[in-house]
Amino acid sequence: MEKILVVDDEPSIVTLLKFNLEKAGFSVITAVDGKAGFSLAMEEKPDLIVLDLMLPFMDGMDVCKQLRQEKVETPILMLTARDDEFDKVLGLELGADDYLTKPFSPREVVARVKAILRRVNMSEKGANNETEEKSSIQIGELVIYPERYEATMGGNILDLTPKEFELLLYLAHHRRKVLNRDQLLTAVWNYDYAGDSRIVDVHISHLREKIEMDKRKPLYIKTVRGFGYKLETP
After folding, report:
1. What domains are defined for the chain?
2. What share of the chain is helix, strand, coil (3-state, %, to 5)?
3. What is the tens place of the pLDDT at every residue in 124-156?
4. b (16+ CB within 10 A) / e for 111-132
5. How far apart are CA 37 and CA 8, in angstroms?
6. Which residues face 230 on adjacent strands?
């Protein structure tokens, strides 16, 4: 449930907005002056702030300005009784995301709140996808997502055990480099070669079953006879 902070010094407006926002499925906290609103914004970390411009102790412009100075990027819908273009522009320049002039209908406030949150969520999703894409490793149709501990082949999620994933990731980080069994044992299993390296061969075989079209003619995980294995782009 997304949390909305309503800051307004008119009790009737606070009551009206709280009722309609809660009816729309939001959790609502309230403040009746600028200082209290600023403190709640810092402490409660709401998903959006509905902020009146004219407030006691600290006006909405100052609240908005100080929040942005504190690097708080919570979206702000500013309310005002003034129909003044200068106030509107100044509020947006200080970091408000939208602006609504009183009198307004509760339905319009709810619609604006939903629209702002939708834009924010889409923006965050895009940023997360971009970060994830940058951190992923793609080799042919094989894509490895280290942060998700997940790999896909042709868009299909591979059913890998933890050790299979770690082995695949290590090979990917050293793609095109030939790695012997001793190196793989030390890196993935964290112990020195003790006379039996079949554990590496078994896991390579399992990976091939899950990655290769034909494990007898592997395109990704190649055997370099007398040396070891390497992962390369087909």
Report:
1. 3-133 (3.40.50.2300), 137-231 (1.10.10.10)
2. 45, 20, 35
3. 554 455 444 557 899 999 999 987 788 999 889
4. ebbbebbeebeeeeeeeeeeee
5. 9
6. 222
